[in-house]
Amino acid sequence: MAQFIAGPSTLCLLATFGAEDAQPAGFLIARAAGDEAELLTIGVVADLRKRGVGRALLRHAVEALKASGIQALFLEVDETNAPALTLYRQLGAEAVGRRPGYYENGGDAAVLRLDLQS
Ligand SMILES: CC(C)(COP(=O)(O)OP(=O)(O)OC[C@H]1O[C@@H](n2cnc3c(N)ncnc32)[C@H](O)[C@@H]1OP(=O)(O)O)[C@@H](O)C(=O)NCCC(=O)NCCS
């Protein structure tokens, strides 16, 4: 994580929840290469899920990446991860591939692409 955060082409976002005494609620790390970027990780504190934090993180990331001239964001996700898949699709990401056996437990990954040009 420290290595990713220190990287020159890395976007790191921390979301907080609550107006006063705001507490960390979630984070996102993406890495750019050329005119494409890859979502490395996104996570929301379990107690604060389903309140729009994940969507807000992704929307901010999309705006920041667009402003840097990035054309597309790639996302890799466990095919059984319904919350993440639904969130990505809701924002317009489309499946472009599969990685069978990608995860240590033998699970398959879906590769999604979010077009940032529009
Ligand atoms: C995936 C994750 C980041 C979503 O964060 P979140 O803050 O709960 O998501 P939001 O509240 O912004 O939800 C946005 C949309 O995602 C979808 N979604 C979120 N949680 C969902 C769930 N449990 N089941 C189905 N869809 C879900 C919904 O479409 C939702 O929109 P809606 O509320 O208008 O229906 C969160 O569940 C998480 O941290 N999961 C564990 C880590 C993880 O799996 N990261 C992704 C690795 S690729």
TrEMBL record:
The keyword Acyltransferase applies. Signal peptide: none annotated. The keyword Acyltransferase applies. It comes from the Bacteria. Residues 1-117 form the N-acetyltransferase domain. GO terms for molecular function: acyltransferase activity, transferring groups other than amino-acyl groups. InterPro entries: Acyl_CoA_acyltransferase (IPR016181), GNAT_dom (IPR000182), YpeA/RimI_acetyltransf (IPR050680). Keywords: Acyltransferase, Transferase. It holds the Pfam family Acetyltransf_1. PANTHER family: ACETYLTRANSFERASE, N-ACETYLTRANSFERASE DOMAIN-CONTAINING PROTEIN. This is N-acetyltransferase domain-containing protein. It comes from Methyloceanibacter stevinii. The lineage of its organism: Bacteria, Pseudomonadati, Pseudomonadota, Alphaproteobacteria, Hyphomicrobiales.
